[in-house]
Amino acid sequence: QVQVVESGGGLVQAGGSLRLSCAFSEFTLDMGVIGWFRQAPGKEREGVACIDTTFGLTDYADSVKGRFTISRDNAKKMVYLQMSSLKSEDTAVYYCAATNWGRTLVQSRYNRWGQGTQVTVSS
Fold first, then answer.
1. Do residues 32 and 18 lie in contact, with contact meaning Cβ atoms separated by under 8 Å?
2. Distance of CA 61 to the CA centre of its chain
3. Residue 90: helix, strand or coil by DSSP?
4. What sign results for the dihedral spanned by CA atoms 107, 34, 86, 8?
5. 110 vs 22, 24, 123, CA distance in Å?
6. pLDDT tens per residue, range 80-118
7. In sequence order, what are the residues at sequence separation of 6 or more whose Cβ sits closer than 8 angstroms to the Cβ of residue 66?
8. Which contacts of 16-20 are long-range, i.e. CB under 8 A and separated by 24 or more positions?
9. N or C terminus: fewer CB in 10 A for the chain?
């Protein structure tokens, strides 16, 4: 069973930055893409960014383009989400997960979810 652990969340002022980390116990052949998702109170979980673990190709939700950067370190089995120019609407629990469906921000295509890390942006 692949273990997934997110970390790096916290409280930050609007305009600030945070870097989230996602640690996997292993990368298996059916984990070609890693995605970051978030769920705000009372809202559906939404895709934020994803990265192909082989070629490093990325996709972003329009709401975070130019502010968030996803990256990976395959040797360390880590995926990161650098978040800058944070806004109050970025407040959510952030999750990472894996898929072999290709680059997609559709959460139903993902499995191996972590427990999430809380990000709170104060205005």
1. no
2. 11
3. helix
4. positive
5. 15, 14, 32
6. 999 999 999 999 999 999 998 899 999 999 988 999 999
7. none
8. 16/86, 16/121, 17/82, 17/83, 17/84, 17/85, 17/86, 18/83, 18/86, 18/119, 19/80, 19/81, 19/82, 19/83, 20/80, 20/81, 20/83, 20/94, 20/96, 20/117, 20/119
9. N
Tokens of 98: 């894996």
Residues 6+ apart with CB under 8 A from 44: none
| Residue partners of 11: CB distance under 8 A and separation at least 6 | 120, 122
Q: What is the pLDDT of residues 26-82, one digit of tens each?
A: 877 667 899 999 999 999 999 999 999 899 999 999 999 999 999 999 899 999 999
Question: One-letter amino acid identity for 121?
Answer: V
- Name, in order, each residue with C-beta under 8 angstroms of 15's C-beta and a sequence gap of 6 or more: 85, 86
**CA–CA separation, 23 and 44 (whole Å):** 24
- Burial tier of 58 (Cβ tally within 10 Å: 0-12, 13-18, 19+): middle
Closest CA relative to residue 38, chosen from 12, 5, 65, 61? 61
Strand partners, 12: 121
